[in-house]
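[Structure tokenization] protein backbone as discrete codes
[Encoding] learned vocabulary of local backbone shapes
[Protein] chain in single-letter code, fold in tokens
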Amino acid sequence: MEQQENLLNKMVKEIAKENKFVNPKTTIFETVKNGYLGIPHKISIEETNKSGGKGKSLHLFLKSAPTGSRDVLPFRDAFLNEITMYEEVLPTFFKFQKEKGVKEPFESITKCYKSCSVENQELLIFDDLTKHNFLLWDKVVPMTKKSIEFVVKQSAKYHAVSFAIREQRFDVFNKLTSKLSLRAFHDFCKSSSILQTLVVNAQFALKCFDPRADEQIYNKFNHFLENDLKETALGNSGGNDVVIIHGDSWCNNFMFKFKDPNNPDDVEEMKFLDWQFSRLASPVIDLSYFFYCNGPQEAFDNLEHYMKLYHNTLGTSLKDMGTDVEKVFPYSTFKNHWRKYAKFGLAVACTLINIYYNPNHNEALNISELMESGSNFAETFANSEILDNQTYKKRMRGVVTHFVNNGFI
């Protein structure tokens, strides 16, 4: 612990020096935990003058890795993944876009000031987006049409860079992917405690349906739970049509800035957070995760609108970089991927939508502490009282019904 504190103090001093602070005063304090794989703190660097007055300031967000339960969960791999994304993959993407003269490039990430990959001291220090009027979406409220469209277009721009580099500079693409821990998400979900939690939450979702009144939907969803859920939840997708995905697209991993904070349709900017589970996969793994965990019923009813929006944006972005979308990811392939891989979105929605309305998760739980405490992980993470929440049941029924009616399961 002392080593980690010394390292952090050194890094913060370096940030202050690099930003030309004179007589900096540094404060590190705890903050609300919104993610499950990191320990969050906020850092304030303030410049003071001889008379005691305040000058400029810098506000940072620290995310450090848990040191416990590393024998069962891939905390180190997840943090190394995110460090690689910020230090190598994303800078390469930005440089490529600049070389190609892209008019509207993907740049929806926060600034990472420092990172550390020393074992048991892994951490990243970011710009604190809340100080720039960025907000998390309220997870109990499905996203609006405009906000979904905004994320879909930004996702398309991000995936486009990956497709273009893979097609034009395959050696560069391979070098980048070789540095990622591509199995971090797979290993996380394959942990017995996590996998059991996914199963329990899916069983709660099944209980949103009556075996007789909803016989067709109940039986098809039950068949999915018994035969496909565990493999689907691992998020695997092979083939040649893969990109470096974001990998963890629930609402707490995006922050939004609104022109009018009271109008959720008035999105000005957004930032992707938490690149810990970035890996090689179909773009549909990202899109289905985001769409089914965050969208309202109206979005599901208009799926083709969002698919076309994504593909049109992808095509425009690829054209700017000199790649033909019909060569790397035609719409017919996209639709085939959706039929094959979109059920990943259903698998994670069973747990995420439960989390949204489960009072146990008003603040993100500390997974490492739960593992070490010896308590029943699945029971803590999943609470049967969720079935008394009518909003949860309505959203869960909507997602499952959509999958059955469209023949996706």
Residues 2-64 form one domain. Residues 75-99 form the longest helix (25 residues).
